């Protein structure tokens, strides 16, 4: 399961890299990437899983950014959303 957050972050970074035309979207994607890093292992202990409400908030923000973006950027955000959904489902079944 630890690999999935890495893949989510990679998609967010790709989306940020392709969001050349929209600086606001690019900056928000970078912020979400940093937030995800903190949620899944940055300053937190390995034993403390991310809170569901924080993951839901991240999903909501990704959906909003996807709606505001186009093309390749939107595709990367969609991939990140899918991976995040899989991560949440896996966590729920592991609990």
From TrEMBL:
InterPro entries, per database record: DUF7553
UniProt superkingdom: Archaea
Pfam families: DUF7553
Location of the region described as Disordered in the Swiss-Prot/TrEMBL record: 1-25, 66-95
Protein name: DUF4404 family protein
Lineage, broadest ranks: Archaea, Methanobacteriati, Methanobacteriota, Stenosarchaea group, Halobacteria
């Amino acid at each position: 399961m630890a690999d999935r957050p890495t893949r989510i972050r990679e998609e967010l970074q790709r989306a940020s890299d392709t969001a050349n035309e929209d600086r606001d979207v690019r900056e928000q994607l970078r912020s979400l990437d940093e937030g995800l890093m903190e949620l899944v292992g940055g300053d937190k202990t390995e034993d403390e899983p991310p809170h569901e409400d924080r993951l839901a908030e991240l999903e909501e923000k990704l959906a909003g950014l996807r709606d505001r973006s186009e093309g390749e950027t939107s595709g990367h955000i969609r991939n990140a959303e899918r991976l995040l959904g899989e991560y949440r489902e896996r966590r729920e079944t592991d609990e």
